[in-house]
Amino acid sequence: MKLCDELTARLGNAATVRENIPLAPYTTFGIGGPADFLIEPESAEALSEALALLRAYGIRTRIFGNCSNVVFADAGFRGAVLLTRRMRAIRWEQNEVWTEAGASLIALSAQAAKKSLTGLEFACGIPGTVGGAVRMNAGAYGREMKDIVVFSEYLDENGKIGRCIEHDFSYRHSVYQKTNRILLSCRLSLLPGDPMLIQETMQTNRKKREATQPVGEKSAGSVFRRADGVIPARLIDEAGLKGLAVNGACVSEKHAGFIVNTGQASAADVAALTEQIIERIFRRYHIQLQREIEFVSEK
Ligand SMILES: Cc1cc2nc3c(=O)[nH]c(=O)nc-3n(C[C@H](O)[C@H](O)[C@H](O)COP(=O)(O)OP(=O)(O)OC[C@H]3O[C@@H](n4cnc5c(N)ncnc54)[C@H](O)[C@@H]3O)c2cc1C
User: Fold this and answer.
1) pTM reported for the whole predicted model
2) How far is the CA of 283 from the centre of ligand 1 (A)?
3) I need a labelling partner for 61 at 20 to 30 A (CA). Which of 70, 72, 164, 242 fits?
4) Where in the chain is the domain with CATH 3.30.43.10?
5) Which fold has domain 232-296?
6) Which CATH number is associated with domain 3-83?
7) What are the pLDDT digits (tens) for 101-117?
8) Is 172 a catalytic residue?
9) Tell me: the pLDDT tens digits for 69-103?
10) Is 123 in the pocket of ligand 1 (CB under 6 A)?
């Protein structure tokens, strides 16, 4: 039996399994060639079963959420890309919420606001999943995931489920970047708040984003990490690099920290533009910019 058919037979309705699927439409950047397999499990059990089968066949696997921080290669991905987006159960228990890894951060922050719970207002414009956000310690406006995560549950390399309490969080970093563990779910702790104030804060955050970032354009968010007080966007702007382009990849005119895909940008275009920016900033300031977005290789 072909692997795709075997996966479909074994997983039934618990996952969709497709072969040779272009990745670009699944990303916020609109970039990426075909994956050999694209698998979207509906539950942790289905994810675990799919991974076990893929491992038995020696197929390379990678897990992603909403693909809002990644650039897939133009040649695509040899192996199986698994997306958590359908694992999105959310259970509220007073001030705490248990959520599967694939829940949308934006949807979760809207639910919290409806429940008059404060702590997730910062996340109302971050287009990632909870799993991706914990891994990245995503944050905005002075708040980060580390402020609200109680614990997370994961699947380790041997298919065993574990619980993580110490996440070693720091700026855009967590323990999940040092291991191959797959985050399955997590528990977040919020606080009762003033519903009007929560709505106002979210509205202010959204307006700030709309005023300063290329909202609605194809991107993967901030391209470079802040480090040692260096704000990459400020340097890139000062260096006059807004509008610098390699084919369809262009430094946003609105926010110099973003590269936008203005049409048919390829991963190679984004990589070349990123290199140019790094080189020019180094020549001018002797500062080595570090990438925040992740380039995912074909093999
Ligand atoms: C317009 C725009 C604005 C943004 N604004 C912000 C912002 O304000 N602050 C901010 O921090 N980020 C921001 N981002 C970046 C991005 O949304 C965040 O980093 C987000 O947390 C990524 O989540 P994701 O589900 O899309 O992860 P993906 O891009 O799918 O994956 C990112 C990494 O996490 C890994 N991963 C994903 N899910 C799991 C899992 N369940 N278990 C283990 N590893 C996993 C992937 O393998 C990959 O290495 C922005 C992006 C865009 C496009």
Assistant:
1) 0.97
2) 30
3) 164
4) 3-83
5) 3.90.78
6) 3.30.43.10
7) 999 999 999 999 999 99
8) yes
9) 999 999 999 999 999 999 999 999 999 999 999 99
10) no
